[in-house]
Amino acid sequence: LQENLASVGLSFKDVVYLRAFLAPDVHLGGKFDYDGWNAAYGEFFNTAQLAHKPSRTTVTTPGFGDPATLIEIEIVAAFPAPPALFDAKSKTPQLRTYGAPAAPIASGIAVAATAPLYFSAGAVAMGDSVEAQATAALATLKERMAAQGLGFEDVVFLRAYVVPGPDGNIDRAGWSAAYGKQFGTSEQPNKPARTTIAVQSLPQPGYRIEIDVVAARKP
Questions:
Q1: Edge to edge, what strands does the sheet with 55-60 contain?
Q2: How far apart are the first and last CA of the chain?
Q3: How far apart are CA 171 and CA 160, in angstroms?
Q4: Measuring CA to CA, which residue among 187, 109, 99, 102 is closest to residue 142?
Q5: How many CB atoms lie under 10 A from the CB of residue 214?
Q6: Measured between alpha carbons, how far is 59 from 113 in angstroms, rounded to an integer?
Q7: Which end of the chain is flanked by fewer CB atoms within 10 Å, N or C?
Q8: Do 111 and 156 form a contact (C-beta atoms < 8 A)?
Q9: pLDDT at residue number 18
Q10: What are φ and ψ of residue 162, in 5° steps?
Q11: What is the pLDDT of residues 64-123, one digit of tens each?
């Protein structure tokens, strides 16, 4: 994250908000290692070198489908002055995307200060599989965004909440298959920043996935 920020001229002093998702630590008998997370956080924030402390939430997740993955972190940072990052001739002049070209998601997206943000969420219990429900939820989100004059090319950030299967794993392949039909394609090349989080349950018993998005409207 520090490297991603530095690539656009930012640092941790510019971080406004931080959210961490902790998974059970198999080395601690399945407990959540809050002390370890706080120790790592304390190496970068509220130090003698950097007194800054962003707003922060820490929440737990049943896991990430891989016992070796113990934490995922999201950040929001604010540019101290409008940066010269944006291309007025681009199809999305309000956005600047970063990350490896072949990666399915972006490492980060910068948003122009003049771009109003749009927030929406979708969950549809259509079908039993994660892929089917994710496909339906994305279709719902596309309709809602279109009603606001927006499209998936305007999406800055996407977060998926997935209910694990009976084996305790989340169906990343199914979710990725649905996602891959809408993002990073030849017709729609935009790839937002993204997190995928396992949750114990969703509001309706049949729901397997819920998706929320943040989109930036063109100036």
A1: 55-60, 15-22, 71-77
A2: 28
A3: 12
A4: 187
A5: 19
A6: 29
A7: C
A8: yes
A9: 95
A10: -120, 135
A11: 878 889 999 999 999 998 888 888 888 899 999 998 989 999 999 999 988 999 999 988
Structure token pair of residue 81: 């002055």
Q: How confident is the model at residue 126 (pLDDT cuts 50, 70, 90)?
A: confident
The alpha helices in 43-165, defined as continuous H runs, are 130-147
User: Model-level pTM greater than 0.70?
Assistant: yes
> Residue 123 and residue 125: Cα distance in Å, rounded?
7
**Neighbour order of strands in the sheet with 209-216:** 117-122, 209-216, 155-162, 193-198
Q: What angle do CA 71, 74, 76 make, to 5 degrees?
A: 160
Which DSSP category does 88 fall into?
T
Q: Count of CB atoms within 10 A of residue 38's CB?
A: 11
* Helical spans, DSSP H, in the chain: 2-6, 34-42, 130-147, 172-180
Half-sphere exposure of 72 (CA within 13 A, CB side): 20
For Cα atoms 153, 192, 173, give the angle at the middle one, nearest 5 degrees: 110
Distance CA 139, CA 124 (A): 9
Closest to 52 in 3D by CA, of 5, 112, 97 = 5
Using a 10 angstrom Cβ sphere, with 0-12 exposed, 13-18 middle and 19 or more buried, the burial of residue 169 is middle
